[in-house]
Amino acid sequence: MNIQVSITPNGRMSLPAEIRKRLGVAGGGTLVVEETADGVILRTVAQSIAHAQGLARKYAGQPTASVDAFIAARKDDSGE
């Protein structure tokens, strides 16, 4: 879905109500803004956490990757 929104001179923009409802921020909330080479991505905090967890699982090579397991593996690799 592509929707054009306007940005006011003071930098504010308004997301359409339909999108805010789907994201669960209709009554207000927080979005994380990620700038990429292809543009800007808006995610809810929960979506950002899920995205980061997916990246961690991918790079840790374990379907149940955790921060503690990642740190332990790095210590093993470094000989600490």
What is the total tally of β strands?
2
Query: Strand content of the residues, in percent?
Result: 15-25%
Which residues sit in consecutive blocks of at least 5 with pLDDT less than 50?
none
Could you tell me the radius of gyration in angstroms? 18 Å
**SS class:** alpha+beta
Tell me, what's the shape?
A: elongated
Helix tally equals 3
Distance between the termini: 49 Å
* Order of strands, widest sheet: 1-2
Secondary-structure element string:
HEEHH
> Residue share in helices?
40-55%
Characterization of the model:
With 80 residues, the protein is α+β, with helices and mostly antiparallel strands. The protein is built from 3 helices and 2 strands, in the order H-E-E-H-H. Strands 1-2 form a two-stranded antiparallel ribbon. A hairpin with a 2-residue loop joins strand 1 (31-36) and strand 2 (39-44). The longest helix has 16 residues, at 45-60. The radius of gyration is 18 Å and the shape is elongated. The model has no long low-confidence stretch (mean pLDDT 86).
Quickly describe the structure.
With 80 residues, the protein is an alpha+beta fold.
Question: How would you describe this structure in keywords?
Answer:
single chain; 80 residues; alpha+beta; two-stranded antiparallel sheet; 3 helices
Secondary structure layout plus pairing:
Elements: H1 17-23, E1 31-36, E2 39-44, H2 45-60, H3 67-78
